[in-house]
Specification:
The structure is a homohexamer of 127-residue chains. Chain A is of the alpha+beta class. Chain A contains two helices and five strands, in the order E-E-H-E-H-E-E. In chain A, strand 4 and strand 5 form a beta hairpin. The longest helix of chain A has 16 residues. Chain A is elongated, with a radius of gyration of 15 Å. Chains in contact: A-B, A-C, A-D, B-D, B-F, C-E, C-F, D-E, E-F. Chains A and C meet through strand 1, strand 2 and strand 3 of A and strand 1, strand 2 and strand 3 of C.
Chain lengths: 127, 127, 127, 127, 127, 127
């Protein structure tokens, strides 16, 4: 299995809903270090999993939809819990749309909010 | 598959038994960066894999049993080889006990002793 | 010259005022990795610059005044530009109050908002 | 599943062939941070996955074949695309030869060319 | 003293001249993590040392003159030893030209070629 | 001012003497990431501050005197408080002896015991 990972980061504000989150229920923010790992069984005709430049561009485009934003006010997150896990899943969905017809394999999104906590979502992109 | 990881660290002393370990057979020590990665197929009712606060607390509690200790003198490690791999397995067992009835899924423990060497143990928590 | 540094982190939301900040003028957030470096010419009677435990506690206490907060709504930052540089200066001031009579020497505060940008403020604590 | 990882680095020059690589088609270079992760179901008679010292030595030996080299001029890479993915596969092959009869399990090679891009190749070593 | 640092990276090939460099005398390459630290006594009218966006842009522009290049073939390095130290000095000179009239204070350039070796050059920008 | 830094690490056991250290008064251990930063005003005839290879060798030799050791049992630390600060000072002294006649300038030793605490000692080497 071959893999290729690119990373970038975004600055976001948000709040979490539910008693268990304590102070994280208040409006606060985080730097999210984003990683997108692409995996597939065989290399393509250029000898790669996916072009680093293309993968980085998609990551930045996807990130731009939330960079320097208050997620609590974005239409796309209305009624959603913007936990790290859910945000990874949401970003995975954005990638899926942009990758349609250009990549088949596994995609794992990882979001690091601090050196002490991070989350991920992994699922195949197979259309 | 969703995942959530928390990390912390402990300071321990120990020695390894066996000729192949050379100078590591002497009493020495290490800072162990500990990571606990929880994975499951679905998010819970709060939209998360496990509460970061709860996971961090368990990690710290488990770490306290060996923090600032000489493992060679702890009853629980008598007759055991306290390699990084075994310590990861041991910590996994401690987590299993504390997570009983609170988490079902995969748990991976990673211990980093330096930027150049680390070890892990992964197994499902399914009771 | 001896030095001792401790680090921690906080999650904050804020916005910057001024055209040059572009999208950072919107309410967003960041994880701030905080470092406090204490320097002095001689070690104390315990053979240290300052106790790691005490320094870490002050750092956490100081951080708590902004952790999980929207800085735009805190009284203490009213009319202030909460740039990384200013926040480092503000934290330095908080340290100065708490260290009164307990430490003489240089104190440098560093705040890292991403792997690609960080800021600091250094000045002597000499009362 | 137990795992043990060792890391090191090499300095290489190379160029990539194909229009999609843009400026990376020119002769340039990179520091490659190399990681070799060994995984197996059971620990050996010493209570480990593989000896850290032995694993580090193999990693350094394998790295020496390309350290301080222009890969475009090495016989072994003639006609090959020396992408990170391919280099990880190539290094995996070198490990396989050296591990014959000494390790059975999964081996994953990861190569990091910057904090923002890395690649890997994973396959079982089962002879 | 206030400071603001931005970072980026470039991929370069080069060789060093002189017996003491051993294998580094061969054409090889490196990823150079570049940091530019700006320091000054007072914040400007925007409450900052220098705009992060402007500083990052200069860093990238300066980096572009050597990114994906073989330094041995660039006119600007003819007859020069492209050690990390000299490259830091060279980059400092490029910054000095671009900052003329826009920044007065100390500038430190740091170049990291691996987790185990880095170099820097610091001097005032005071025209 | 030019600078060149090399890094490495050692595994040590020790205990600290004094009530303020709490649990660190017990025999425990740490991985110490060691950095040696050499600074001088001018580059030498090879266009460098000091040879990376030579500097790394000295760092490893100096580290070997404490690697895989219980510092409480080493003659050289009898009656000494082996705090990070003191160890940095001690290592600085070892460097001074080995550098006699080979380097004039500033030397800073940094020891990192965890991502959350590190210490240093800096003084000129001018014999």
């Amino acid at each position: 299995m071959f893999s290729l990972t690119v990373s970038s980061h975004v600055f976001i504000a948000h709040s979490l809903k539910g008693e268990i989150f304590g102070p994280a229920g208040r409006l606060h923010g985080a730097t999210l270090l984003m990683e997108a790992e692409f995996s597939r069984e065989e290399l393509d005709e250029n000898g790669i999993v996916i072009d680093v430049g293309e993968a980085s561009l998609i990551l930045r485009d996807v990130g731009q939809t939330m960079n320097y934003q208050n997620l609590d006010e974005l239409e796309v997150f209305k009624g959603k819990q913007t936990s790290l896990e859910y945000l990874a899943y949401h970003i995975h969905g954005d990638f899926r749309k942009r990758l349609a017809g250009r990549f088949r394999g596994m995609l794992k999104i990882t979001l690091r909010e601090s050196p002490q906590a991070w989350a991920g979502y992994a699922a195949p992109i197979d259309e």
